[in-house]
UniProtKB/TrEMBL annotation:
It comes from the Eukaryota. Belongs to the alpha-carbonic anhydrase family. Transmembrane segments: none annotated. The keyword S-adenosyl-L-methionine does not apply. This is Carbonic anhydrase. SUPFAM superfamilies: Carbonic anhydrase. Reversible hydration of carbon dioxide. It comes from Erpetoichthys calabaricus. GO terms for molecular function: carbonate dehydratase activity; zinc ion binding. The lineage of its organism: Eukaryota, Metazoa, Chordata, Craniata, Vertebrata. Keywords: Glycoprotein, Lyase, Metal-binding, Zinc. Residues 1-245 form the Alpha-carbonic anhydrase domain. GO terms for cellular component: plasma membrane.
Length: 245
């Protein structure tokens, strides 16, 4: 449904999509400010292998993996628990698919790990309406010439068409995060798609994760068919970004 509404019409149906804290943004690193009060992000339970099933599915819009609440983040003002992760990539299938930009550069793809404030709210649905309700980790993805790639990302190849899903017995979300996690950009923004709720505390890591080109071609061509054009990112607000050590 959402994918049929072009992004320049979103604000007509979803008023929040026309407001001033819309994500994604272009992060101009020169104009970021160091904020010494920011803590390193510490994921807890992300590498758990408790024998649960993780459901990775293609909802016709993007590829989403549900995550258990015991995965949580430390280092944010409140405790946030994981809900799901999903991937954004480009409609032309090759180079430009990230939502956030660093110094005007669009990356190949971007992974989002969505969390809700589980200290204050009972679930994601309630939290997403609250100012301090959500926290999303943004991981920028690049092509690696060496051909190295994360094992976990290869799994996205299995969900080719809308409605496809795989259940995984164990999944190491840690593998999808950059090695250097203490350098990131932080700002208050929104969900990048309707309803565009301005309730997201964003953390975009400075270090990107590498993916092989071979993987990319398979993934991109399968999603090209499914998404028929992919998602169009909105141009959002600039500034209010902080850079810790
Ligand atoms: C993508 O469309 C995901 O498929 C959505 O997840 C997600 O919605 C939406 O992006 C916005 O999230 O981190 N990019 S974002 O700001 O997480 C939500 C599902 O539809 C609410 C499950
Ligand atoms: Zn997203």
């Amino acid at each position: 449904m959402i994918s049929l509404v072009p992004f320049y019409h979103w604000a007509e149906m979803y008023p929040d999509c026309g407001r001033n804290a819309q994500s994604p943004i272009n992060i101009e690193t020169q104009s970021t400010k160091y904020d010494p009060s920011l803590q390193p992000i510490k994921p807890l339970g992300y590498d758990s292998k408790l024998g649960e099933y993780f459901n990775l599915s293609n909802n016709g819009h993007t590829v989403v993996m549900s995550l258990p609440n015991y995965m949580s983040l430390e280092g944010l003002p409140k405790k946030y628990s994981a809900v799901q992760l999903h991937l954004h990539w480009g409609s032309r299938g090759t180079e430009e698919g990230s939502e956030h930009q660093l110094n005007g550069k669009t990356y190949l793809a971007e992974l989002h790990v969505v969390h809700f404030n589980s200290e204050s709210y009972p679930n994601f649905t309630v939290a997403k309406e609250k100012a301090d309700g959500l926290a999303v980790l943004g991981i920028l993805i690049e092509v690696s010439i060496a051909g190295g790639h994360s094992k976990s990302l290869v799994l996205f190849n299995f969900v080719f068409s809308a409605g496809d899903y795989v259940s995984l017995h164990s999944f190491d979300v840690h593998e999808l995060l950059p090695k250097q996690m203490d350098k990131y950009f932080r700002y208050n923004g929104s969900l990048t798609t309707p309803p565009c709720s301005q309730t997201v505390l964003w953390t975009v890591f400075a270090q990107s994760v590498q993916l092989s080109r071979q993987w990319l071609m398979v993934a991109a061509s399968s999603l090209l068919v499914t998404l028929q054009g992919g998602q169009q990112p909105l141009v959002g607000r600039q500034g209010m970004v902080a850079l810790p050590v």
